[in-house]
Design goal:
Elements lengths: L10 H16 L6 H12 L4 E4 L6 H10 L1 E2 L2 E5 L6 H5 E6 L4 E6 L6 E5 L6 H5 L2 H6 L1 E4 L2 E4 L5 E6 L12 H4 L4 E3 L6 H11 L4 H4 L4 E2 H11 L6 H16 L3 E3 L3 H17 L7 H12 L4 E2 L1 H5 L4 H10 L8
Parallel strand pairs: 1-9, 1-10, 2-11, 3-6, 6-9
Antiparallel strand pairs: 4-5, 7-8, 12-13
Helix pairs in contact: 1-2, 2-12, 11-12, 11-13, 12-13, 13-15
């Protein structure tokens, strides 16, 4: 996309185009509009998404459906214990014909990267993604290679099965803008799934409804959504509340503040507004902050979830005026 001209888009375009993306994904994933909307928020906010739930609830299906709905490069990395860092980032190979080294890109070189069962790879391989997720570039043998735009990592992991897994380090989890749990479908949605998936593969029939350049232009439009000083202060107050909570031994990082701001802009745009409301921030707080924090020993013994603690922290912060 180097040298291409990005068409200027409006927030009205964000609603229209992302509405078609939502409709396309809902043809594959039934009854999960909240999860789909959160995935679109992360995409428009230039973040990465962690799908963490039990097997069989559609984590990988959601990731693949989002990728297929956009005419862009999509690559899937199946994380296994024997996966090497070079499989992710790429490797320089000596070419005898030219007498020099040629760079062979790894799986991370795509617009949308689906990382399946990311916690099954070794910590060394997981760490290979840190630079790419934060700086959108890869450095191999001292040479830096820029990644495509847009660039989004959608990683899945199973929090129940711990055998043969390596828990994501905090630095890695902090790179993900948001974490969501798919949850089990409703009875009606599961019946519809049996009707639609029982005899065919809806994913095979999914055709792109937009392209990478268009998504890039929508991202630029979302960057222009207004955030009032009072709302920025509200974000800081919420993040500070997590750091001061007795129920958390690790609060949210400064990166969390920035990503909560970006996610708020995207959520406002998808709601048809050119400004962020405090409600946008409050609604996003659990998804953006919970996976970055660690509960205290007392909270664990009391069986209080991190989501409950974050919700309590949000409720403790005074809400500013609407605008």
């Amino acid at each position: 996309m180097v040298g291409s001209v990005i068409e200027k888009r409006t927030l009205g375009d964000v609603l229209d185009i992302m509405g078609t993306v939502r409709t396309a994904i809902e043809g594959v994933i039934e009854g999960k509009r909240g999860s789909i909307d959160m995935a679109m928020v992360v995409l428009l906010a230039e973040g990465h998404l962690l799908l963490e739930d039990v097997p069989g609830v559609g984590k990988t299906m959601l990731a693949k459906a989002l990728g297929r709905s956009i005419a862009s490069t999509v690559r899937r990395i199946q994380f296994t214990p024997d996966l090497l860092p070079s499989d992710v980032t790429g490797v320089s190979i000596y070419n005898q014909a030219s007498g020099g080294f040629e760079f062979k890109p790894g799986g991370i070189f795509a617009n949308i990267v689906v990382g399946d069962e990311i916690n099954r790879a070794s910590p060394k391989t997981q760490s290979a993604m840190l630079e790419s997720m934060e700086e959108r570039q890869v450095t191999v043998d001292g040479v830096t290679h820029k990644l495509a735009t847009p660039f989004m990592v959608i990683a899945t992991q199973n929090p129940i099965e711990m055998e043969g897994t390596y828990p994501l380090p905090e630095a890695q989890r902090d790179r993900f803008m948001a974490r969501i749990e798919m949850g089990y479908p409703t009875v009606a949605a599961e019946i519809e799934m049996l009707d639609n998936h029982g005899s065919r593969d809806p994913l095979a029939a999914l055709t792109p409804v937009t392209d990478a350049d268009t998504i890039h232009s929508l991202i630029l439009a979302v960057r222009g959504v207004y955030v009032a000083p009072a709302v920025k202060k509200y974000i800081i107050d919420i993040v500070t509340a997590t750091r001061q909570s007795r129920d958390l031994r690790l609060g949210a990082s400064p990166r969390a503040s920035l990503q909560l701001l970006r996610a708020g802009r995207a959520k406002a745009a998808l709601s048809g507004r050119d400004y962020v409301l405090p409600d946008d921030i409050a609604d996003l707080a659990v998804n953006v902050l919970a996976h970055r924090t660690l509960p205290s020993t007392e909270a664990q013994l009391s069986r209080r979830s991190v989501a409950e603690i974050i919700t309590k922290a949000v409720q403790s912060v005074p809400v500013p005026d609407k605008r």
